[in-house]
Amino acid sequence: MYKVACLPGDGIGPEIISAGRKVLDAAGERFGFDIEWDEYDVGAERYISTGQLISEDELKELSNYRAIYFGAIGDDRVTPGVLEKGILLAVRFYFDQYINLRPVKLLKGVETPLANKKPEDIDFVVVRENTEDFYVGIGSRVKSGVTKNELKVVRDLYSVKFGLDVETDADELAYQIGVLSKKGSERVIRYAFDLAEKRSKKLASVDKANVLTDVYGLWREVFNDVSKNYPDVSTEFNFVDAVTMWFVKNPEWYDVLVTPNMFGDIITDLGAMIQGGLGLAPGGNINPDGTSMFEPIHGSAPKYKGKNIANPLATIWAGSMLLDHLGENEAAAAVLSSIEHSIEERAVTRDMKGNLKTSDVGEWIAEDLLKG
Amino acid sequence: MYKVACLPGDGIGPEIISAGRKVLDAAGERFGFDIEWDEYDVGAERYISTGQLISEDELKELSNYRAIYFGAIGDDRVTPGVLEKGILLAVRFYFDQYINLRPVKLLKGVETPLANKKPEDIDFVVVRENTEDFYVGIGSRVKSGVTKNELKVVRDLYSVKFGLDVETDADELAYQIGVLSKKGSERVIRYAFDLAEKRSKKLASVDKANVLTDVYGLWREVFNDVSKNYPDVSTEFNFVDAVTMWFVKNPEWYDVLVTPNMFGDIITDLGAMIQGGLGLAPGGNINPDGTSMFEPIHGSAPKYKGKNIANPLATIWAGSMLLDHLGENEAAAAVLSSIEHSIEERAVTRDMKGNLKTSDVGEWIAEDLLKG
Ligand SMILES: CC(C)[C@H](C(=O)O)[C@@H](O)C(=O)O
Ligand SMILES: CC(C)[C@H](C(=O)O)[C@@H](O)C(=O)O
C-alpha cells in the first residue's frame, strides 16, 4: 500500500491526472499493491480567489509522501512566473528534487517531425539539474535590489555605456544571478554517471562554458573530477547551442546527457518534440532520499480545459516513472508497454490521429494492463 | 571604393574567408565598386605564441571601417572562452554591435532534417540582442568575486542548503550575472519591429519570463512599450523552450523573432540546422551607426583546417549581408542568387553532396556572378 499525493492543477491537469490514476490503480490491481491518493488543490483558481499558492503547512504534509503526481499549472489570467515559481518550482526546491529525469524516446508507431529517424535513433535520457543555476530566483531591478550597493561593476559598466546614473535611473537595469555549487553539481553529475554505467556508458555534458565561464567553468571542473571515478564511461562536453542541432540532425549520438537547470529546460522541450511532441514527454523530479514528483512536461493548455481531448500519455508515462521510483519496476514496465500497445492499436487522442477522448485512453490502457 | 577589414581567424577561417573575398570582389567588378581588404591576424596561433588576443590599438583602427568580414575562431589547445570572449565577443562589445541578425531560410535544393518542410515553410529572421544578458561576462567564484561580501543572499541560501561556510568554502560556489537594460532592450526591439513592418508584420518575442522574471520581466515591459508605436504589427510572447519545439514542428509560424542574447545564441543554432546546417547559416553583428561585423555562425572546425573541404556558403552569404549593409543591395541580392544557383547546379562541397572544394565553390560563384 502506497500513499501518493496528487496535485492536478490547472487547465487540462485534472483530466490527465484522472486518466493517469486510473492506469496506476489498474497496475496496482494486477501487481498486488494499493495506492491511496490524497488530492491537493493548487493552481490558478485557488490563487485568484484566495491569493494562496502552496502553504508551508501543505509542503510539510507533502513531506510524508515519497511520491507526488503532478498535473500542470498555468493560466492566462495570472502573470507569468507567479504560479510556476510559487507552486512547481517551490515544490522542486522545497524537497530538493535535484534530479530532473527526462527520457527522450521515440515509441514505436509515433510520428517524429524529423525526416528518416526511427525509434532506434531516438532513445536517450536527459538528466537535468533541478535546483540551481538561473532558477534560484535571485534578481531585481538595480533600484530596489538586495545587492543595490554591491553591483558596482554592473553600474560602472552601464554608466559608461549609456550614461545612466544609478541613483536616478536605477529602474532602468535588471539583473539576474545564476548560482552553481560544487556539491549541487556533483550529486547530479554522479547520478548521471551511474545511469550511464547502466546504459551504454556514454555521457555528454551540456553547457556554455565558452561564454558563461564562471558557473559552467565550475560545472566542468566538477564533471572532470567525478569522471575519474568512472573510467569506463566515455564523456564529452557539448555546447548547448550545438546540442540543439545534434538533437535534430543526429539524435542517435546521444544516450545520457547531464546539464544545468536552464539548458536542461530548453533541450528537453526540444527532446519532447523529436519524440513526438509534448503529449508524449514525461519527467521525474527526484530526490532519492526524499519526496519526488512526477509530471508530464507540458503545460496546462487552458484552451483545452474540460474538453476531454488532451493527450494523457505523457502523464501516464510519468506514472510509470512514479511506480519505478516506488520500486514497482515490473508494474512500471507493464504500464509503458501498455502505452506502446495503445499507440499500436491507435487507441489514442486526436493529436496522434486517433479518435479517443482523454478518459477513454486512460480506460483503454487500464484494461489492457489488467488483461496482462 | 570600400575598405573592409578582414579577420580570417582559426581553423577553416582563412579558407572560407578567401572564398568569400573572391565572391565579393567579383560582385564589385560587376556592380562597379572596389573593395580594399585589410587583413588582421587574430586567433589561436597568435594567442599561443604571443599571449595577445586583440589589442586596444587594433580595435581603434578597426573603428575606421564600416564593415568587418570575420571567419571563425576556436582551437582545442585553448581553454574554452578565452578566444571567444577575447576576440569575437570583444569586437561585438567594443563596437556595440547590438543587433545580431540571423536569417533562417531554407534555400531551394537544400536538404532540411525536418520531414515535410519546404523552402516556403522555413523563412524567418532572428534578431538577437548582442551586447547584454548573460554575455556581459560578470561572474566569479564567490571566494574571489568582486561581489564577495555582497552576495549575502546567495551565501545565506547555500549555508542553509549545504552547510557551507562562506569563509572557508567560498571556492565551492560560482555565480554569473546577467544584465538587461531598458535602453539596450529598446533599441534592438525597435529594430525588430521596423524589420517586421517591412516583412509580414508579425513579431515574436522569445524569453523565459516565467522563471528569470527579473531580466525578462524588464524585457517584456520594454517590448510592450515599444509595440505601442507599431499598432499594425501583431505580436506574441513565446518561451524559449517552446520555441525550440515550434522551430522543428511549425517553422512556418515565424517571420521575425527578437530575443535576448543567450537564447538568441541557442535558437539560431537550431535555426541553422533546420535551414540545412551550419554550412549555410550567416550572421551580421550590426551597429547601424558604427562598425559592423559579418560572419558565418559556425566555428573554426579545426579538424578540417587546410583541407580545402569546408563549406564556404555561410561565409559567402555573410558577405552578401555585408554588401547589403554597405548599401550595395543589388550586389547583395546577386550574390545570394548565385549561391542559390550553385546549389541548384550542385556546385557545392561534399557535405552538401557535391564534389567541389572550398576554393572551387568560391570561384564557381564568382564566375556565375560575372556572367550576370
Ligand atoms: C513551467 C516552468 C517553470 C518549467 C521549467 O522551466 O522548469 C517547465 O518549462 C518545465 O520544463 O518543467
Ligand atoms: C563562439 C560563441 C562565443 C558565439 C556565441 O555564443 O555568441 C557563437 O556561438 C555564436 O553564436 O556566434
From TrEMBL, chains A, B:
Pfam family, one: Iso_dh
Protein name stated in the entry: 3-isopropylmalate dehydrogenase
EC number: 1.1.1.85
Cofactor(s) of this protein: Mg(2+); Mn(2+)
Ranges for domain Isopropylmalate dehydrogenase-like: 3-365
Enzyme class: oxidoreductase
Species of the source: Methanochimaera problematica
Top-level lineage group: Archaea
Keyword list, A-Z: Manganese, Metal-binding, NAD, Oxidoreductase
Molecular function in Gene Ontology: 3-isopropylmalate dehydrogenase activity; magnesium ion binding; NAD binding
Record lineage: Archaea, Methanobacteriati, Methanobacteriota, Stenosarchaea group, Methanomicrobia
